[in-house]
Amino acid sequence: MPKARTRKPAGPPAAIEASGVVVSFGGTPVLNKVGVRVEYGQAVSLVGRNGSGKSTLLRCIGGLLQPDSGTVRVAGVDPARTGPALWRDVVMLLGDEAWYPDLTVIEHLELLRAVHAPVPDDIPRPADLLEAFGLTERADVVPAVLSSGQRQRLMLATALCRPSKVLMLDEPEQRLDTDIRPILAELLAERVKAGAALLLASHDKTLIDGVGARVRSLDQVSE
Ligand SMILES: Nc1ncnc2c1ncn2[C@@H]1O[C@H](COP(=O)(O)OP(=O)(O)OP(=O)(O)O)[C@@H](O)[C@H]1O
């Protein structure tokens, strides 16, 4: 009698898994069967020339864009079809800024911490994050009066002041002075060390090396 084939039990789902992703805009292909996988405790950076589809892939993984075909899973679920429970553990900085015009810089961080309470001790406190990002002097102003680089720093502080298991950041180094980049890398590396999955779209060597990211090129797959 033939032996019954034993199937290897499936392990826990990856933090991020995209496979065979196809996206076209107006008939022009942008992503042609692209995939990426990020485990918890890992960092991956998407690289590729301008227009190679890095932001488009991030938007698919963030559930903001439905691919023409292919599979996207975040923590094992389809991000386009899931409820709020998944998003509580996910930080996405995909380019769109959104502020409460009547809340100060530090109040934005305090609000996020209150929503995510109880916040574990390994998550940096608002005052420490403002200091790390050089915003201490700006703690009590509203975002509208910040420079664009200061708003980018605040955006990053909001991403890091709350617990998360998955972080997706599109060019987080944009508009940052070079002296802030190693600080950002260190803060992100701490999150990865604590078990979070980090998916970047970035060519910044300080950031890629600082977080120990594996590089995933989108050029190779589109050529
Ligand atoms: N909503 C849209 N409608 C039409 N075309 C789009 C749309 N979004 C992106 N594209 C096109 O898809 C291609 C990939 O864009 P995407 O922003 O994903 O590239 P990228 O690799 O992130 O580029 P960059 O390095 O310049 O940030 C580009 O040609 C862009 O013009």
TrEMBL record:
Record's InterPro entries?
A: AAA+_ATPase, ABC_transporter-like_ATP-bd, ABC_transporter-like_CS, ABC_transporter_ATP-binding, P-loop_NTPase
Q: Which Pfam families match?
A: ABC_tran
- Please provide the record's keywords in A-Z order: Antibiotic resistance, ATP-binding, Nucleotide-binding, Transport
Q: Name one GO molecular function term.
A: ATP binding
Domain (ABC transporter): residue spans on this chain: 16-223
Chief localization: membrane
Q: What is this protein called?
A: ABC transporter ATP-binding protein
Organism from which the protein derives: Fodinicola feengrottensis
